[in-house]
Amino acid sequence: MRLDEVGIRINYFLGASDDYLYELGVDRAQLPTPEDWFALYKEDYLRPIEERVNYQLIWEIDGSVVGFSSADRIVYGQYAFMHLHILDQENRKQGLGVEFVRESARLYFEALALERLFCEPNAFNVAPNRTLQRAGFRYLFTHEAQPSPINYPQVTTRWVLERAAGYDPAAQHR
Question: Which domain covers residue 153, as residue numbers?
Answer without folding.
Answer: 3-173
